[in-house]
Amino acid sequence: MDNILNIRTEHMKELPERYRATFFNSLSGFKSLALIGTKNADGISNIGVFNSIVHVGANPPLLGMIFRPETVRRHTLENILAHEYYTINHIHHNMLPMAHQASAKFDDDISEFDACNFNEEYSPSGMAPYIRESSVKMMMKYRMHMPIPLNGTIFLIGEIVEVIIPSSYVQEDGFVDLHKAGTLTVSGLDAYFSTEFIDRYAYARPGINPQSIFHRSEQSS
Amino acid sequence: MDNILNIRTEHMKELPERYRATFFNSLSGFKSLALIGTKNADGISNIGVFNSIVHVGANPPLLGMIFRPETVRRHTLENILAHEYYTINHIHHNMLPMAHQASAKFDDDISEFDACNFNEEYSPSGMAPYIRESSVKMMMKYRMHMPIPLNGTIFLIGEIVEVIIPSSYVQEDGFVDLHKAGTLTVSGLDAYFSTEFIDRYAYARPGINPQSIFHRSEQSS
After folding, report:
1. Residues with Cβ < 8 Å from B53, sequence gap 6 or more?
2. Domain-by-domain residue ranges, chain B?
3. What digits encode the pLDDT tens for the residues A28-43?
4. Residue A135 near residue A90, CB atoms below 8 Å
5. Whose C-alpha in A150, B67, B139, B183 is 20 to 30 A from the C-alpha of B35?
6. In this complex, which of A34, A125, A174 lies closest to B8 when CB atoms are compared?
């Protein structure tokens, strides 16, 4: 019989800082994983690895993300606030391990594109650099940010103003097949996973058993 | 050669509403997936399906989540604001398809526990119901919420005050092995995925190639 841990606030306070950070970063569930592309005031390109991107709304299309306190390097936040535009680029299996390397604290005058062997790509929709190696990517325009007084983090929201994606990943109802795209997910700060499709279900209604919509959409594609 | 779509704001505005919702909900990446357990003023238990949980901090341990505008049923939010406590319960493969069914709009006097065949479980740490079928779960205490004026959504933050988890899922550095736990991830509102482990990497440092820490942690366990 497996031992069941019951960890309450008083126990949490006694955990060593690093253990605590690793535990809570991985406890919350699988997370989105993306590289954020920006440019600084000197024109040097920056890449940041983010796992806190959250869907805020579809109309207008808004995504939020959490920035950690001032005590850590925050080139990405500074660049977004200065230039408004940033890119969100999905991470695929063939971008590892260099996508993880982009989380290292490089000096200000070094571009993570060079250090991690990624290539910049531009579109007329914004001045932020896309990552060519990513096959699903978005140009974002800054909309607002809110400080979180509980711990000094910042919740920043941007609007999707451009999406670049192969048509074969988009099903006829608009569903983006991230598994087909090879988009990865992350647990904690350093554990990378690919996915296995289980099922898609129709909109749930009381009293009606969940209906798979997988076969229908396969047949129609 | 695959056709690459370039979708800009002017195209997005022309998309049919349902296509647009499906597209943007699935575009942002794989998401955390959990059932939120609450109780209403009449003592009726409620389950909500959420895919917007985001890590806000480890000290204190904080998780945020997005609630959609007032126009949709929001029992979960009302219950949290009234009673402070709520539970976050991971969703595993054997909880499908009923975990999806919990997203149906049941009448106020019906408990999703009964309607979806989940069992309630309680601990002394809070009045909110845990879901027995989930093997990784947390008691949350409400801390704050912030309206997002851009679209009327609400960003709510709670503190983890209790964690219930089998010890075999927690590695010696504190890393929670969600793959071993069978925790699922979701894309969009209705597509469920399990995961395949790729690798864990050591903390990244400039000039040093990413080092796998998978074998080390396997050997030490």
Report:
1. A28, A29, B32, B34, B63, B64, B65, B88
2. 29-220
3. 999 999 999 999 888 8
4. yes
5. A150
6. A125
CB neighbour burial string for B57-89, b if at least 16 within 10 angstroms, e if fewer: bbebbbbbbbbbeeeeebbbbebbeebebbbbb
Pairwise CA distance, residues B33 & A26, whole Å: 13
State the best of A92, A95, A170, A176 to mutate against chain B, taking most chain B CBs within 10 Å. Answer: A176
Do A164 and B6 count as a contact with CB atoms less than 8 A apart? yes
Q: Taking phi first (over 0 means left), then psi (-120 to 50 degrees means alpha), and beta for anything else, what does residue B188 get?
A: left
Structure tokens at B72: 């949709």
Inter-chain residue contact A98 with B210, CB threshold 8 Å? yes
Among A49, A35, A44, CA closest to A189: A49
Q: Residue B71 is encoded by which pair of tokens?
A: 């126009």
- Give the CA radius of gyration of chain B: 19
CA A5-A23-A10 angle, 5° bins:
55
pLDDT digits (tens, 9 = 90+) for B38-79: 998 888 999 999 999 999 999 999 999 999 876 556 789 999
For the entire predicted model, the pTM comes to: 0.95
> Which of A39-43, A151-155, B66-70, B180-184 has the weakest average pLDDT?
B66-70
* Chain-centre distance for alpha carbon B164: 16
CATH code, A27-220: 2.30.110.10
Entry field: residues in chain B? 221
